[in-house]
Every structure is written in C-alpha cells, then in structure tokens.
Amino acid sequence: MLEWYKVGEIMKIMKYGLITFFILSFILFALPFVLKGILNIGNITGMLVSFLCVLVVLNSKQLYPYLTSKITITFVIVFLGIITFCSYKILSNINHPSNKETTVVVLGCRVKDKKPSLALKERLGKTYEYLNENKELNCILSGGQGDNEEISEAKCMYQYLVKKGIDKKRLYLEDQSTSTRENILFSYKIIEKENLNKAITIITNEFHEYRAQTIASHLNIESYAISAKTAWWLFPTYFVREIFGMIYEFIF
Asked: What's the pTM?
C-alpha cells in the first residue's frame, strides 16, 4: 500500500496537472480572439468553463461536499454524455463522397473586407480542389450578406473561384440565406429551378457537416459530404459552437 505522504504527493501532482491543463485550455480558446478577433459562443464558453474549472480545482477541499453531491454528479454525467454524443456524430459524418454525379453546395461563412475569412478560405480551397477533380459538376455558392459584410458570402466565393480559374458557367449564386437551414433550402430551390442534379454534395468544415447533413435529411434531400479541414487552433472554438448549434437544431 502507498504510504500517506506518497498519496499526498500524487494528489498534489494531479491537482497542479489539472490546473495546467485548464490554463492551457483557456489559452487555446482565447487564441482565435487574440489572433483573428473571433469571439463567439464557442470560445466564450470554452474560456468560461476553463476558468471555472481552475477555481474549482484550487478550492476542491472547500467545495468537496458540493462536488460529490448527487446533483453535481448527475450534471457531470449528462454534460459528458452530450459531449460524447455530439463528438461521435460530428466525427462520423466527415467526408462521405458520392460515387455518382451530384450538385455541389458550398455553405457560406463570414466575409471580411470583401475577402473570405479563414474558415471560408478552408471551404473554398476544398471546393476548388473538388471541382477541378470533377469537371462535370455544377456548384451552388450559398450565403447571404450579413450586417457587418460589404458583399454577400456567395459573391465573395464566386469571385474567389473565378479568379482561381473555375468556369463561371458552373457556378450559381444563392445570396439570400442567413442560416445553415436556409443555405440548403434556398440552394435546393435553385437546383429545381435550373433543373440540376437533385442529389447534393455539401462542402463545409468538418465540424459543420453533421448538422448540414441532418438538415438535408429533414428536407428529404439526398446528400453527401466533402469536408474542409479546420485550423487546429480554431477547431475547439467552432466545435463547441457547433454543439450549441446541434442542440438548437434538435429543439427547434
């Protein structure tokens, strides 16, 4: 058996290990704001939870009765269950390409000074690559113009891809949508109007694919996934934000 002083040392190491982990977690969620001015429910939640966890670990002795209560344990189990379920759904819906002809639908993202944001560039990079590999496919660029955007996301994507050499005749603009659901719904209306292929391949970041595919399924649209890779320092922020998006989609 371990002597009491060795147990004390192990507990001390674990305590400071947890503190270090949560401080690093706080820094990771703060990076998008520090580097790119990105502040949303994802990194706000991440920073807040990391900060609270540091306080809890520092005051674990005083909080022990509360930490071991049935309410707290139940909350932690439910919280971890939600995280596990969402993680599984997100990770299992990355990259499901079609083996037949489809219409490509690219989901918009924020535009800054008439130029694509980093997340939108990631989607456009994957779109350019996919359209070059599949020259027979048409593509709908979907995204309206937000209050803080000088041009619509669809127009920004159009300019980017045309400049890279994609034929204008293959590109259709959907510039009225303001949400993922509208992206897909309004894009499908263009598909019907232009008599394009009814099955779609959705291009978006990997964290976003599950929700996009779920919405398409609810709308009875046959869909496939080609996922853009998100920068490592952005992924945790958008991953947490996406969990809120999934919960909202499930409820409403």
From this structure: 0.90
